């Protein structure tokens, strides 16, 4: 694989931004468009973490796919009430830049998004807002119930309010996953959703709630699995392989 470290100016954020990317080695010599996976990090990490803590480059090699790993700061990939428009920057500006600068396919069947924890929330929210662009979303140990977090003493209420506003604003501004799946369930196309959570993860209850909601809606092409593990890189490194296998089912 070829490895790129990219810095660019984000007009949306008004600042320098960065992402890491891996591409098949034949990116330079072949005149072709590659499938692309946008891979999002969690709350305490940045755009370097997937390459530092997982074998994502080796896994991507198996499927000949590009992987784009952006910096999402601590934004929850959201246009913040008190802060910057991170959702627009990651879901619209970044893909537009990548499509102009790199040989990636813009076809829906070749475009995927995945993430863990905060990035799981961001990946699913992005795919639900743009189902015409993403064939599938892969989520692991995801933060799923933002509204519930406002009354959960284990989380920082000031953080939630600065990012999302009130619970009512969270729903009205398209940041509540449960409202989004109700809406998108009535539409075509819908992204496949591949969903993993560890049976020792502190977010297990929230992930089960999302599973129950998607199964109630009879979401087409939804996979949920609970397997041994906690909120850890050992778990995520294992299951990103399963997610890629689903994205590129039949390719290997």
The first-to-last residue Cα distance is: 17 Å
Structural class per helix/strand content? Answer: alpha/beta
Number-wise, the strands total: 8
Largest sheet: 8 strands, mixed
The sequence of SSEs as H and E is EEEHHEHEHEHHHHEHEH
Question: Tags for this entry?
Answer:
alpha/beta, eight-stranded mixed sheet, 252 residues, globular
Overview in brief:
By secondary structure, the chain is an alpha/beta fold. It has helices at residues 49-53, 56-63, 86-101, 118-129, 146-149, 157-164, 167-172, 177-184, 204-216, 233-247; strands spanning 2-10, 15-23, 36-40, 66-70, 111-116, 136-140, 192-198, 222-227. Helix 2 runs parallel beside helix 10 (233-247) and helix 4 runs parallel beside helix 8.
What does this structure look like?
This protein is of the alpha/beta class. The chain has ten helices and eight strands. The protein has helices at 49-53, 56-63, 86-101, 118-129, 146-149, 157-164, 167-172, 177-184, 204-216, 233-247, and strands at residues 2-10, 15-23, 36-40, 66-70, 111-116, 136-140, 192-198, 222-227. The chain has an eight-stranded mixed beta sheet, with helices on both faces. The model has no long low-confidence stretch (mean pLDDT 95).
């Amino acid at each position: 694989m070829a490895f790129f470290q990219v810095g660019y100016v984000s007009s949306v954020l008004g600042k320098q931004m960065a992402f890491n990317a891996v591409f098949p080695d034949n990116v330079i010599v072949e005149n072709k468009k590659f499938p692309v996976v946008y891979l999002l990090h969690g709350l305490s990490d940045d755009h370097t973490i997937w390459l530092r803590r997982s074998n994502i480059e080796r896994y991507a090699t198996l499927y000949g796919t590009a992987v784009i790993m952006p910096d999402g700061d601590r934004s929850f990939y959201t246009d913040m009430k008190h802060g910057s428009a991170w959702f627009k920057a990651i879901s619209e500006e970044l893909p537009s830049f990548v499509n102009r600068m790199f040989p990636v396919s813009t076809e829906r069947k070749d475009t995927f998004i995945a993430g863990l924890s905060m990035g799981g929330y961001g990946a699913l929210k992005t795919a639900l807002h743009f189902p015409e662009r993403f064939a599938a979303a892969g989520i692991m140990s995801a933060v799923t119930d933002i509204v519930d977090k406002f009354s959960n003493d284990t989380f920082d209420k000031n953080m939630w309010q600065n990012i999302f506003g009130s619970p009512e604003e969270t729903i009205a501004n398209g940041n509540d996953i449960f409202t989004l799946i109700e809406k998108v369930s009535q539409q075509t196309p819908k992204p496949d959703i591949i969903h993993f959570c560890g049976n020792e993860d502190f977010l297990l209850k929230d992930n089960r709630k999302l599973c129950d909601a998607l199964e109630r809606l009879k979401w087409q092409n939804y996979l949920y699995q609970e397997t041994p593990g906690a909120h850890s890189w050992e778990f995520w490194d294992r299951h990103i392989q399963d997610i890629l296998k689903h994205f590129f089912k039949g390719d290997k």
